Amino acid sequence: MAPHKFSVPVIILATFLCVIGAFRVVPVQAVQVDGSRFGVVIGDSIAEGHPALHGVLHPGPATYDPNYPNQPGQLSYELADLSGIRWYNHGIGSQTTEHVRGRWLRDVLALEHDPGDGRGSRTLTSLPDMVVVSVGVNDVSLQIPALTTQTNITYMADTLSALGIPVVFFTLPPSDRFSPEQIQAVRDMNAWMSSNLPGPNVAVVDLYSWFEDPANPGKVNSQLAADYIHPSKEGYRQLAQMAWDALQSLGAK
Q1: Could you read off the pLDDT of 181-201 as tens digits, one per residue?
Q2: E strand or H helix at 218, and its extent?
Q3: Minimal CA–CA distance to 116: which of 103, 130, 134, 100?
Q4: Domains and CATH numbers, the chain
Q5: What is the rounded distance in angstroms from the CA atom of residue 235 to the CA atom of residue 247?
Q6: pLDDT-derived band of residue 1, with 50, 70 and 90 as boundaries?
């Protein structure tokens, strides 16, 4: 960890979520956490918990709601349950590695920095104890050059590794909507990640192999999926366990 560490206020996660129907209220289960330590989940819609759920930076339009609760079936919620510490959900759907790198100083490195996205210049008051990243698949969708994606992901890994902060990257997922060329681009990027990222403070979790339909290469496993690219809530629970196991292998506690 970096030497300058500030305490983070404990935010009570026992809140209530209004769902489907004006008069139906379902309580969000409280997770007991150690408020002095925390992690960050950052990246795209998988980091955020789509298709059903959202994070503090994307509760609706381009706004920031620090009190927006984590909910069962999100990586942030499930990781808090597993680790006993708070997890900030800094996922934003549809974002590329360029988007995430642009807000990395604010949303991971806890610096005062305004990336110009309408969400202000401060989301954290101290460095996280650990980080989980899901990003890159939208780069493939938008045909962003692989070298650009690799450069951005390397920046994320290197900045945290230099600070001694454990970080886990998920490989890119399969998708029912990808062309054969896009499927190959995803596989190539995943091979690069698995070969180049792992280190003393960096681990890679093979989301692709876990999520791929064994009978339909390149497509999602319907038993784990909510739609063409996103896991189900049970799938997110399994992913959170995989991420937590990897963080523990890096020495996270």
Answers
A1: 999 999 999 999 999 999 999
A2: strand 216-220
A3: 103
A4: 16-249 (3.40.50.1110)
A5: 18
A6: very low
